[in-house]
Amino acid sequence: STSALITSIADVEKSARERLPDYAWAYYSRTSADGQTYQDNLEAYRRYRLIPRNLRDVSIRDTSVTVLGTRLDIPVAIGPTAIHRFAHPDAELATAKGAAAMNTGMVLGSFANHSIEEFAEAVPSGIHWFYMLFYKDRRHMKRQLDRAERAGYTAIFLTIDQSFQPFFVDKRIGPRPYPVPLRFPNIFDVEPPHAVGSTEYRDCLAAAVKEPATWEDVEWVRDNTRLPVVLKGVLSAEDARMAVERGVNGILVSNHGGREQDGVPATIDVLPDIIRAVGGKAEVYVDGGVRTGTDVLKALALGARCVFIGRPALWGLAHNGAEGVEQVLQILTDELSLAMARTGMFN
Ligand code: FNR
């Protein structure tokens, strides 16, 4: 059975490695340059120590948290990652079912096989957030913002550290197109008549996205949706302050899981500075390298409201579809709850 001998995220990762075809494993595990930042994300958590408070009554431990007004049962949500179709035929829908089973939120990636509406309708009980790219055509952005709002999404995520160059030209992955059917209905209203990954498709994508985006684009989004806006990819206190000045509601401290600029700091190391800079004027979350419940507790103890996971959800999806995603979240929750009991730290 697929759930035998799986007791940790590391076990799920191993199972995913065995199940995923090489191209998919390569895409999911890719890091920037030589992976300094990816490694540092993991190692940084190990450098922090928990100081337990004992003799407290820990019989009731509450793992729930409120994110932008929505209550999540657990302080672990699923961040935007591209192309879940590599891990499972039901792609993002299966991931969303896993998240909904644990009553936590999920960000629908723009590089998803399912449209804004399909995704929301398939998992009506889910907590849905939408990650929108910056486009040159603002009418297109406005349409996407309105669609997300109408479909019941409760936040817009804007990623500020993504460059499309590595996505287009990843020499380690080899020739495209991919051997599974891909479509990205949230990027184009009318899909280009080219295979995803082909040079022609990449040209269409490059023509549509606005790169680089600037603060002015963030302001435009802020002014053009009623939904809360989360800025993902903040690593400096100064950018966090600028985000707050522009009315951004949430800041996701992230280095893209070490997939973009290498040599930038581990997220957990810059979290305290950013929380200080924000001064309670926005919610602050963190992602990158969360692999255990004690990692989650460390992030919360350092002031994060909630953590996001990227690869672990994809590993769960590859391991056992929606149930595998649920299992990943359950493992982290069980470990977190135990760590809360043993350290006397809880909400
Ligand atoms: C990502 N991530 C990401 N982020 C984003 O804003 N837009 C995107 O399209 C993607 N795509 C993507 C694909 C894959 C395969 C991975 C693994 C990641 C980054 C993601 O949201 C998150 O920041 C990191 O994955 C967090 O680090 P961990 O949990 O993977 O260590």
Automatic annotation (TrEMBL):
It comes from the Eukaryota. The keyword Membrane does not apply. It catalyses: a (2S)-2-hydroxycarboxylate + O2 = a 2-oxocarboxylate + H2O2; 2-hydroxyoctanoate + O2 = 2-oxooctanoate + H2O2. One of its GO terms (biological process) is fatty acid alpha-oxidation. Its EC number is 1.1.3.15. GO terms for cellular component: peroxisomal matrix. InterPro entries: Aldolase_TIM, Alpha-hydoxy_acid_DH_FMN, FMN-dep_DH, FMN_HAD. FMN binds at residues 80-82, 159, 232, 254, 287-291, 310-311. Gene3D superfamilies: Aldolase class I. Its cofactor is FMN. The keyword Flavoprotein applies. Keywords: Flavoprotein, FMN, Oxidoreductase. The active site is at residue 256. GO terms for molecular function: (S)-2-hydroxy-acid oxidase activity; FMN binding. Residues 1-347 form the FMN hydroxy acid dehydrogenase domain. Glyoxylate binds at residues 27, 256, 259. PANTHER family: 2-HYDROXYACID OXIDASE 2 (PTHR10578:SF149), S -2-HYDROXY-ACID OXIDASE-RELATED (PTHR10578). Belongs to the FMN-dependent alpha-hydroxy acid dehydrogenase family. This is (S)-2-hydroxy-acid oxidase. It comes from Branchiostoma lanceolatum.
